[in-house]
Amino acid sequence: MGLDEGEFSDFVAVRSGALYRTAYFLTGGDRHAAQDLVQDALGDAYARWGSIRDTSAREAFVRRIMVRTATRRWNRRQRTREVLAAQPPDSLHPGHEDATATSVDLAQALGLLSARQRAVIVLRYYDDLSEAQIAEALGCSTGAVKTHATRAIKALNATFGGTTYAPTPSALEDS
Length: 175
Description:
Elements: H1 5-26, H2 31-48, H3 58-80, H4 97-112, H5 115-126, H6 131-138, H7 142-159, H8 169-173
Helix pairs in contact: 1-2, 1-3, 2-3, 5-7, 6-7
C-alpha cells in the first residue's frame, strides 16, 4: 500500500487543530514546543502513512508518536534542568479573562506533572480516550494508566489549593 498524499493532506487539514491542542498540553503549555511536536509527529507519520492499514487508526498513530516524542523531550529537558518560561495562550474567547486565567493555570500545572502523568491526563480528559486506549498509546498496562491518573489528580489537587479537581474537556479546551 503506497502513500496517498491527498489522504494525508486531508488528514492534516482536518485534524491539525485538534492535534495542536493536545500537543499544547503535552508540552506543558508551550506554544512553540507544541507546534514543533505536531510538525515532528506529522513528519514521522508521513514517512509511514502508507503502511497504516487501518485508516481509522491513523489519528491514534499520530497521537502515539506525539506522546512518545513529548515524553522523550521532557525526560531530556529534566536531565539538563532546562526551564521554559510559561507563555499564556492568546484568548480564544475575548471577554473570558477568568476562563483564560484558569486555563493558563491548568497548563502551568500540567507542566509540573511527569511526562506520563501529563499524557494520561491530556489523553483521558481532553481526547476522551478510555484507559485501554491510553495504555495502548503509552505502551503500558491499564493499571499503570490508573496509577498515573491517580497521582496526577492528586498533584493537580495540591496545585489548586487542595480542592478536588479533575480536569474537564471544556477546561482543557478553553486554552
